Amino acid sequence: NGSNMLVDDNGIGGVVLRLDEQFCEITVSESGILRAGAGATLSAMCHAALDASLTGLEFAWGIPGSVGGAAFMNAGAYGGEMKDVVVSCEYITPDGAWNVYNADQCEFGYRTSVFQHQPYIITAVSVQLKPGDQREIRAQMDDILQRRKSKQPLELPSAGSVFKRPVGYYAGGLIEQCGLKGASVGGAQVSEKHAGFIVNKGGATCADVLGLVAHIQKTVLEQTGVTLECEIRSIS
User: Is 161 a catalytic residue?
Assistant: First the structure.
């Protein structure tokens, strides 16, 4: 659904596919395996787990985007990642063949997976969850959502967290340390609430965001010696 993506101001030179209908179906097995179509939202997947009193996916509550995108990026927050629960990913190859990878074959790493290096389309993701107390699961989800609201600029448009966490540091902390909180290029601005986010204050272009990203990377490298790697993906 476009989360974690920045589309070029000139658009995309190709075909964009949206997985819908049967690609949004979610099923739960008696063994605690929850299978969701890649087009389903991550929030819908979390709701399905809650309804089935299954624990293990609470960390994903509030993460925007689709199930397929979450597996593609190995999305994570608050001590959990997709790799912790994924047991398999179904996908289609460029020639139309259907296949499935187990968790090891997905080669999950920090905000990465094998799918970032292969021309495959993820069609469904299965996760293994455990039986839990529904009230406790709901309480944990509510707590995570409140923490998100208190720390992240959810009131303004953004592509999410801009940079991967450098080893031994927090990207937002380094950016703030360098005096870049509130810095802007055109309509793009480093969030005053959380320096790890770039928000659209109105009329921001892709060029504005990329220009601000480059300015942040240059400044942080010069002042701290740390290289910030972009987490959002620029598509053209």
Answer: yes
- What's the confidence (pLDDT) of residue 13? 87
Catalytic residue among 81, 88, 111, 126: 111
Ranges of residues in the chain with a pLDDT under 50 are: none
Mention every residue, 6+ apart, whose C-beta is less than 8 A from residue 142.
none
Residue 118, both tokens? 């292969």
Q: What pTM value is reported for the model?
A: 0.89
Q: What's the rounded Cα separation, in Å, for the pair 6 and 235?
A: 6
Sign of the alpha-carbon torsion through 6, 11, 17, 20: positive
Q: Which of 58, 81, 90, 231 is catalytic?
A: 231
**Residue limits of CATH 3.90.78.10 in the chain:** 152-235
Nearest-angstrom CA–CA distance, 56 and 38: 19
- Count how many Cα atoms sit within 13 Å of the Cα of residue 126 in the half-sphere of its side chain: 16
Q: What is the location of CATH 3.30.465.10 in the chain?
A: 5-150
Is 233 tagged catalytic?
A: no
For domain 152-235, give the CATH number.
3.90.78.10
Q: Is 111 tagged catalytic?
A: yes
Separation between Cα atoms, residue 135 and residue 133, nearest integer Å: 6
Among residues 88, 158, 161, 191, the one annotated as catalytic is: 161
- Read off the pLDDT of residues 155-178 as tens digits, 9 standing for 90 and up: 999 988 999 999 999 999 999 999
Q: Of 115, 42, 118, 44, give the one whose Cα is nearest residue 82.
A: 42
**Top CATH class, 5-150:** alpha beta
Phi, psi dihedrals of residue 73, rounded to the nearest 5° = -95, -5
